[in-house]
Specification:
The complex is a heterotetramer of chains A (159), B (149), C (372) and D (119). With 159 residues, chain A is an alpha/beta fold. Chain A is 28% helix and 30% strand. Classes of the chains: A alpha/beta (159), B alpha/beta (149), C alpha+beta (372), D alpha+beta (119).
């Protein structure tokens, strides 16, 4: 029963965006699809029309060896009871991506957090001011090249 | 029967010890162990301890757990606004040495570099009996003439 | 949105801090722009409890991370441990034995009851019903006592480990839990008179902070806040994990979506949790409760994603591992993040100033879970 | 009915008060509660397992009577009990004693001598 819902979504997505869908697998009832960064916004709006109306999370991951950030959009469909994760890769030097605030207003703070902790620039997000850290002068702390233990030794245990 | 008779107030410290007012600013996880004290588990009002809203009326500041970089400036400002004699009680291991978050980039490792701390209660977070042990110890010290800061 | 018809330049708004040091705000700061009694705008400033868990977890092994993970949300530690431990097992591909799964679900439901009873106390303190605070925080001692006997720790149980739990339930432990459940059921009648059907509570909470179903879904509401708007979304039913496939969970939903509906949702959840624990205790299998898990066990490279139903909503952990014994990246999606930073400012605009604490605590957002 | 309801409160007169009269009575210690550690000097062989396992780096090995023993800084310890659980010789145990209130931070360091005696 569940598998045909997955196949239905797979055909719908791949028919519209054939080439820009890098991979689409449905292991144990969960959709994980990798998309090229340019088509990410359109694929997300298609997924939203297909019933994935709950945006659970916008996760940033720093793959420093590949020189890329990976952004994972976690979606959930209340009607179909399926979870979908859409992943895109953007370059680490100029991490710019189009904001999805127009699709989900709730995404504004998730993107603001990722901006502060990773340094990813979300074009179109109304407010990207610092969220957690006050007058933070170092590089964004969740990047792999920021070593918290070395920073702590210098900042707190230096005396 | 003798417990019901009012005890004579012998010294200035005696009055201060029986009316320690705590600032209603519970920073972190120690607040969970202060719930029985605020509520009816251990009921701190039996000792004359009251949670007041403004630092002007407060005698005791409880640093109840880890202190982040953002929170330490607020704690310092509240501490400065309190009238002396004032006392600081730190709960748990995080204010003393950074504890669980010793390598976190946003928590302060030693609170006594920012405000003088009079009493450390160990535990992560300390049990209500530990905090009671600390309160009784503080009251006896104040009765004995400990002036605080 | 209540737009006032006066020119903004003619009247000056007052900005009131709903500050970090406030009896009803927890350690969370918000600037409330007020025009007389009506709230015009609210800007939230979290970050007072930000410890950077996701960065710290990259430096510790998985067993040490479970000790760290239950400190994410102070009011509901079991759900965080449940999420971290399950995501590690998914990454490695190990299944905890059935008895371990049952014990985990029982303690998670006990943690939910504890979190809701603490929530009753904080909300009635925010509304000025001091007797509700005194009595619910007194009853809380009995639940914490059972946690102390079962797990050895009070607020932070450090009880779940990847592969099961650290201790077993003995028979008198189970009798203690049954006695506790009867006590809570009796106490619920007292809470009904004291808090839930108390005229002050009802007048302060009804038609205050009404959230429609569309706004709730668009802003990312989960848990009791979403179920109060009529959406029956509960991860224990949609994606059952650990002990939940073996019990039936009746999801409590309301229609109106105002603060009072959210409070009744939490009240119904306490009763549901009691019935779940009873079902779990009757069906609990014998056998071992833990799978051997070396401290420096290597996790194969890959990604794992696990979602569980915390007391506040959908708590999800996303772990990326690179084959070493430490996770490469852990993302914690706390439910309070969207409740306090997206829904709370949205609900408060246009309401009265006196309703700000009522709305804030009807959303039950834990500042530590929001900042991580 | 609502007229006589307040009289139902009289049954509270005969119930035990919810508040614990703290300094004079306290709840019995719970067997299995993780309080302060206690070290068995004979069993301990000075292996570094407990210091590696501790998430807070609270344990370091120091010289005592010519042998290496763990010294626990209770100001860093989070009382999770991993050291007692992973000790190969079963030399470290968690006692129920947790009433530790100090005025000077140096008293939080439990040297092997202090660790091996009960309070």
């Amino acid at each position: 029963m569940a598998t045909d819902k997955l196949e239905e979504i797979k055909t719908a997505v791949e028919s519209r965006f054939g080439d820009s869908i890098l991979s689409f697998d449905t292991k144990d009832g969960r959709i994980v699809l990798k998309v090229s960064a340019q088509a990410s916004h359109e694929v997300l709006s298609l997924l939203k029309d297909l019933g994935f109306e709950h945006l659970s999370d916008v996760t940033g991951t720093d793959y420093i060896k590949d020189g890329e950030f990976e952004i994972a959009y976690h979606l959930w469909s209340h009607a179909k009871k399926i979870r979908a994760i859409q992943k895109i890769r953007i370059s680490r030097e100029s991490p710019v991506v189009k904001s999805i605030v127009d699709l989900w207003p709730g995404a504004q703070i998730h993107e603001r957090e990722d901006h502060e902790l990773f340094g990813i620039d979300f074009v179109g997000n109304p407010d990207l001011s610092p969220l957690f850290l006050e007058d933070w002068k170092e590089i964004p702390p969740f990047r792999k090249d920021f070593d918290t233990r070395e920073y702590v030794k210098r900042r707190y245990y230096g005396d | 029967m003798s417990k019901l008779l009012p005890r004579p107030i012998r010294s200035k410290g005696d009055a201060a010890a029986n009316s320690l007012w705590v600032i209603n600013y519970f920073t972190a996880c120690g607040f969970m162990e202060l719930l029985p004290w605020v509520g009816s588990g251990y009921d701190m009002e039996r000792f004359g301890i009251l949670a007041v809203a403004t630092p002007r009326h407060a005698d005791v500041l409880i640093v109840a757990g880890y202190v982040t970089e953002k929170a330490v400036s607020r704690i310092k400002r509240i501490y400065d606004q309190m009238a002396s004699p004032k006392y600081v009680m730190a709960l748990g291991s995080c204010p003393m040495t950074g504890g669980m978050y010793w390598d976190s980039y946003s928590t302060v490792k030693r609170i006594d570099k920012y405000i003088p701390v009079d009493l450390w209660v160990l535990g992560c977070p300390p049990k209500p009996e530990n905090i009671g042990h600390g309160i009784v110890m503080a009251m006896n010290a104040i009765k004995g003439g400990f002036g605080g800061h | 949105m209540a737009t006032n018809n006066l020119e903004e330049s003619e009247i000056s708004f007052i900005t009131i801090p709903f500050g970090p040091q406030h009896p009803a705000s927890g350690h969370f700061h918000a600037k409330v722009k007020v025009d007389g009694e009506n709230v015009v705008d609210l800007v939230a400033y979290p970050g007072y409890l930000h410890r950077g868990f996701e960065k710290l977890m990259e430096y510790r092994t998985h067993v040490q991370n479970t000790m760290l993970s239950d400190r994410v949300c102070i009011l509901d530690p079991f759900s965080n441990e449940m999420a971290y431990v399950n995501v590690t097992e998914l990454a490695v591909g190990i299944e905890a034995p059935l008895r371990g799964k049952f014990i985990r679900s029982i303690m998670a439901e006990l943690g939910r009851i504890l979190s809701h009873v603490t929530w009753i106390g904080i909300t009635s303190m925010a509304l000025g019903l001091e007797s509700g605070t005194r009595i619910s925080w007194g009853d809380r001692e009995k639940i914490i006592r059972i946690q102390e006997i079962l797990t050895g720790g009070r607020i932070y149980p450090c009880y779940y480990v990847p592969g099961g739990v650290r201790r077993d339930f003995s028979q008198e432990h189970i009798d203690e839990i049954f006695k506790l459940l009867d006590y809570i059921e009796k106490a619920m009648k007292l809470y009904d008179d004291l808090v839930f059907y108390n005229t002050t509570f009802m007048t302060r909470m009804e038609n205050v902070g009404t959230l429609t179903k569309e706004d709730a879904i668009a802003l990312g509401a989960t848990g009791p806040n979403l179920r109060a708007c009529g959406v029956a979304a509960d991860v224990r039913v949609d994606e059952p994990y650990d002990g939940y496939p073996y019990v039936n969970v009746d999801v409590v939903t309301m229609e109106k979506g105002d603060s009072y509906a959210r409070s009744l949702c939490r009240r119904g959840e306490i009763i549901t949790s009691i019935s779940i624990i009873r079902q779990l205790l009757e069906k609990m299998p014998a056998g071992d409760f833990k799978v051997k898990w070396a401290m420096t066990k290597k996790v194969p490279a890959g990604e794992a994603y696990f979602c569980c139903e915390a007391a506040r909503g959908e708590l999800c952990f996303h772990m990326v591992s690179d084959g070493s014994d430490k996770p490469y990246r852990v993302k914690i999606r706390g439910p309070s993040f969207s409740h306090a930073l997206a829904i709370f400012p949205f609900l408060v605009r246009g309401s009265q100033l006196a309703d700000v604490p009522a709305i804030y605590w009807s959303l039950d957002s834990c500042p530590a879970d929001m900042d991580r | 009915m609502s007229l006589i309801r307040p009289f139902s409160l009289f049954k509270n007169l005969f119930k035990k008060p919810m508040t614990l009269d703290f300094p004079f009575e306290s709840l019995p210690a719970v067997e299995g509660y993780r309080g302060r550690q206690i070290l068995d000097l004979e069993k301990c062989t000075g292996c570094p397992v407990c210091s590696m396992v501790c998430p807070n780096l609270a344990i370091e090995l120091v010289e005592y009577n010519g042998k290496k023993y763990p010294q626990i800084h209770l100001g860093k310890c989070c009382f999770c009990g991993l050291c007692a659980e992973y000790c190969p010789r079963d030399a470290l145990h968690m006692t129920q004693e947790a009433m530790i209130t100090i005025m000077d931070t140096k008293e939080a360091v439990y040297t092997p001598a202090k660790l091996s005696q009960t309070a």
